[in-house]
Amino acid sequence: MKTHKIAVIPGDGIGPEVINEGVKVLNKIASLDHTFQFEFTSFPWGCEYYARYGKMMDDDGIERLKEFEAIYLGAVGFPGVPDHISLWDLLLKIRKSFDQYVNIRPITLLKGAPCPLVNFNSEDINMLFIRENTEGEYAGAGDWLYRGKENEVVLQNSVFSRKGTERIIRYAFEVALKQGKTLTSISKGNALNYSMVFWDQLFEEVGKEYPSVKTYSYLVDAAAMLMIKDPKRFEVVVTSNLFGDILTDLGAAIAGGLGLAAGANINPERVYPSMFEPIHGSAPDIAGKQLSNPLAAIWSASQLLDHLGYEQYGKVILTAIEQLLIEKNVLTPDLGGSSSTSEVGDCIVELIASNMNVLQTQKN
């Protein structure tokens, strides 16, 4: 039996609650397959750890995480710890240290999920955002000059390297080619006359190697409008770190809300572990109350299975989530229900077991 070693960082707020349900789902999948199992190792890093020790993770944390195939992260952030510290000293530190330069966020309207847009159905909203994840606007380059003085100046520099820009664009072209879909690049070349003109030129340059992939290119403001007015025009999307961060939250809003928003941070070469996380944040106001929606964390677990080569089980999880949304019997308050976090997780486990039994029967 193959053992997959997974590092678990439950994190802050509702993180431990939703991650617990994701682990429950992963263990259920493994128990029904019998050819592999998971070995989870939990790390207590996060804002509570920071409040106690003055740091978001152990000094040797990155070295310790190298031992694992993947990382499963709950949430980062809590009142009392500045957001730039919680983000840069844990989440972004892991992304950058492990060269997780591909951020994958599905914007898919599952059947039964709420959508604020009128006259659109699930077939109209099915985007895959591929976001550059290690440089760009979040490179952390800049300076703070003459702090506190009358002539105070702050510099925040974006960094777009040829290597970093080309590899994310090429990754997106490969995905679009494999899936037989269009590829849309989102930038802002009219205003950002260095970084985004460079991005646009590389998109065109790499695109010549993929003549069968139909491409589009939009300015970010126009893309935001079109995601609302005509979302079906977007299939595979590639964009920069900042634009991807903003637009995927817009995408989450039109595809069921943040409780259904999953994200993967991928090191495609598998030199380092990749990381999987819901993107809804730590929601400290409802932490510990069993009110949080675990579906985003469970969706992230399906991405983890995809990464490990068990795409068929990733689909089983998504089918179970969709069934739950259609039936509407077991939902958390954010989706109009009255069920607890753990009750939703238990229901997903039951649906998975039922669906996998059907699959086994069909095979036999």
How does this structure look, described?
- Its cofactor is Mg(2+); Mn(2+).
- With 364 residues, this protein is α/β, with parallel strands linked by helices.
- The chain has 2 domains: 1-108 and 257-364, 3-Layer(aba) Sandwich (Isopropylmalate Dehydrogenase), CATH 3.40.718; 115-255, Isopropylmalate Dehydrogenase (3-Layer(aba) Sandwich), CATH 3.40.718.
- Helix content is 43%, strand content 21%.
- It contains 11 helices and 12 strands.
- The chain has helices spanning 15-33, 47-53, 61-65, 83-97, 162-179, 195-207, 220-229, 241-254, 295-308, 311-327, 341-363; strands at 2-11, 36-42, 70-75, 102-108, 126-132, 136-145, 153-159, 183-187, 215-219, 236-239, 262-266, 274-278.
- The protein has a 10-stranded mixed β-sheet, sandwiched between helices. Strands 6-7 form a two-stranded antiparallel sheet.
- α1 (15-33) packs across α9, α5 (162-179) crosses α6 and α7 (220-229) packs parallel to α8 (241-254).
- It is globular.
- The relative contact order is 0.16.
- The mean pLDDT is 96.
Strand content: 15-25%
Tally of individual domains: 2
- What is the 3D shape? globular
**Percent helix:** 40-55%
The tally of beta strands, per DSSP, is: 12
State the separation between the terminal residues, measured CA to CA. 22 Å
Write the H/E string, N to C.
Answer: EHEHHEHEEEEHEHEHEHEEHHH
Q: What structural class results from the helix and strand content? A: alpha/beta
